[in-house]
Amino acid sequence: MDNKGKLIVISGFSGAGKGTVVKGLVEKYGYSLSVSATTRQPRPGEVDGREYYFKSVADFKNLIDYNGFIEWAQYVDNYYGTPRKFVEDEIDAGRDVILEIEVQGAMNVKSQYPDAVLIFITTPDRNTLEARLRGRGSEDDATIAKRLKRAAEEAESIDSYEYIVVNDDINTCIDTVNSVILSRKCAKENNLSFIAALKDDFRR
Ligand code: 5GP
């Protein structure tokens, strides 16, 4: 197999449960997880450096200027970005890194890293999404309305992803996403130098 780690981009509607899916992938299958920076306020229970690096707008803009992000985007009034150094170090060390980011960021990553795997996690339908957003209880009605509107916009971009996984049962979803990643890693076009080396080996 080729030695560099892969970038795995996981997107999905806010409230589709992708955070839980990602946590499961890290805990069950040992993927490395990129912690993003954001200017939004922490939700109850969120810890700086664990869910996000919480930044002021000035600090965030400073990081943009210093090329500190692989990608960044604005989402519902806040900035979000993927810190460059951690991701580059991990893939150089051969570890697969999950980025849990929204659609603009996903497209941006794909243009820089063509072999990144783009996966979209969705609820079975819109009503389930709305119920999950309300059940979370951490956002007011106006924010929920904004997130649903944004979800409707994001639904239009689903075709830009390579794989779509429905999160109906969380454990099934985690295992399915892992299978998607494994199958991509085994794809011929991701193993050209390995195949060449193997052929050489057998020709000797
Ligand atoms: P939330 O505020 O619910 O944690 O995240 C809002 C949205 O921002 C989610 O769709 C999440 O995937 C996305 N997001 C989180 N971190 C990043 C990032 O570093 N870059 C981009 N482009 N989106 C991000």
Write the layout of secondary structure elements.
Elements (H helix, E strand, L loop, with lengths): L6 E6 L5 H12 L2 E2 L2 E3 L13 E3 L2 H9 L3 E7 L2 E6 H9 L4 E4 L2 H10 L4 E6 L3 H11 L4 H15 L7 E4 L3 H17 L5 H12 L1
Parallel strand pairs: 1-7, 1-8, 2-7, 3-4, 8-9
Antiparallel strand pairs: 3-6, 5-6
Helix pairs in contact: 1-7
What does this structure look like?
There is one protein chain. This protein has 204 residues and is α/β, with parallel strands linked by helices. Helix content is 47%, strand content 20%. It contains eight helices and nine strands. The protein has helices spanning 18-29, 57-65, 84-92, 103-112, 126-136, 141-155, 170-186, 192-203; strands at residues 7-12, 32-33, 36-38, 52-54, 69-75, 78-83, 97-100, 117-122, 163-166. The strands form two sheets. Strands 2-7-1-8-9 form a five-stranded parallel sheet, with helices on both faces. Strands 4-3-6-5 form a four-stranded mixed sheet. A hairpin with a 2-residue loop joins β5 and β6 (78-83). The radius of gyration is 18 Å and the shape is globular. The two termini are 20 Å apart. The mean pLDDT is 94. The structure holds guanosine-5'-monophosphate (5GP). Residues 14, 36, 40, 71, 73, 75, 80-82, 100-102, 104-105 line the site of guanosine-5'-monophosphate. The site of guanosine-5'-monophosphate (5GP) has 14 residues, from β5, β6 and α4.
